Amino acid sequence: MLRPRILVVDDEPSALEILEMHLTERGFIVSTAPDAKGLIETMPSFRPDIIILDVRLPDADGLDLLKTIRESGDDPHVIVVTAFHDMATTIEAIKRGAFEYIPKPIDLDDLDAAIERAIELSTARDSTDGLVIGPSTDFAPMEIIGKTKGMKEIFKAIGALSNNRVTVLIEGETGTGKELVARAIHYHSPYRDEPFVAINCSAVVENLFESELFGHEKGAFTGAVSLKKGRFEIAANGSILLDEISEMPLEFQAKLLRFLQDKEFQRVGSEKTMCSDARVIASTNRDLFQMVKTGRFREDLYYRLHVATIKIPALRDRLADVPLIVEFLLKKINRNLNKHVQRIEARALRRMGEYHWPGNVRELENLLTRAVINTHGKTICDEAISRLLNRREEGEETIAEETGSVNTRGGSRNADKDHVLAVLQTTKWHYGDACKILGISYPTLKKRIKEYGIVPKPRNTPA
User: Is the overall model pTM greater than 0.85, yes or no?
Assistant: First the structure.
């Protein structure tokens, strides 16, 4: 990058003089403007890389100018400075695209640090290396990404199994995308217009399994105030995914086995026999055969489920797919968070290609979401990715196999709390959207909110 060009906009002559002198001594090419009119007139010819912008100008609100600057086409980094350093102004400045926000009187060390970060981002953005993120218009939410041999075998298996209705067992570590594969089997089948119903067996209270899957009649037990259809009845002729089937209680496994044999069931509290032709797809992150040997899973049910099996490889076994997955996930994250990240630095991409990813694709999505939330520009730099990965490699963060979520200890607990809170604020406290971004279930989100002491806010309430 050539000598960076910095435009300083401030209505105080003394502030302009001090900043121009300081920045010139540091080797930058500097121009100044006392107001919005001067900014607009100077930008086309000077074409600044960085703009230091006072919020309070005599002829305009500096925050309103952020849109004009952003639409100029040159995409300079804007560092907002003002004597009115309240929380609302800071939030609004960042929302409108400011790169950094510094209060007056300006600490020159803070300003220098912000300028260095802006230069680093500009260098990464202008580099021909790295990964360029295409437009999100071609984003397909349910797409499975991969070009490695293992993933091609999975694609072939999905194609073969979509033409029949045999029971399928999907095996893979937490976060590998087992539900995506199950949905792909369903939506590529002749029954794609029928319901696809998923139930997480690890999230069901043990004594409510029969009610959840088979339904219940009104008054069947205390709390059954109305008739409830079970998941098999709702699935009808479609597909039902029994996610983490290893967590299903032994006593209910016998009832599921009978259903798989006869395709018949009764609601709790009813003597009427009902039928369901729903295709059963089961998934697990555990070794079911080993559980059979130790008596924790029924052998007859295991073989009934083990008609067709798909084994999803861990992300560490297909690292060549990381760039493709990163591009896909960043399109998704951009859309969910209303962000516009367009590039990821080559060193950052290389770093991700060397990490072992114990939490698999779900961990990768979690990491990228954090990086995007904390990226003010359009480029994710190596520093942002390395900082997050270093925490995990040093043991400050671990990925929980059972939940697929990030658990923290030490300083990283606060980082995870901040991340959860940031996502809740970004989604305007919509728990469903927050769960999708965080890659966790609703009960896990509620647990995190309680554990971290986060005070829930009603939707449409200012965060």
Answer: no
Q: Residue 8: beta bridge partners?
A: 32, 52
Strand partners, 243: 200
Measured on CA atoms in the order 428, 430, 436, 442, is the torsion positive or negative?
Answer: positive
Task: Just give the CATH number of 149-312.
Answer: 3.40.50.300
Tens digit of each residue's pLDDT (9 = 90 or more) over 227-262: 999 999 999 999 999 999 999 999 999 999 999 999
Give the closest residue to 349 by CA, choosing from 392, 396, 386, 378.
386
Domain boundaries, the chain: 5-126, 149-312, 318-451
Task: Write down the CATH number for the domain with range 318-451.
Answer: 1.10.8.60
CATH 3.40.50.2300 matches 5-126: yes
* pLDDT single digits (tens) 170-211: 999 989 999 999 999 999 999 999 999 999 998 888 888 999
What lies within 8 Å, CB to CB, of 343 at 6+ separation is 124, 125, 130, 131, 132, 133, 378, 379, 380
DSSP code of residue 283: E
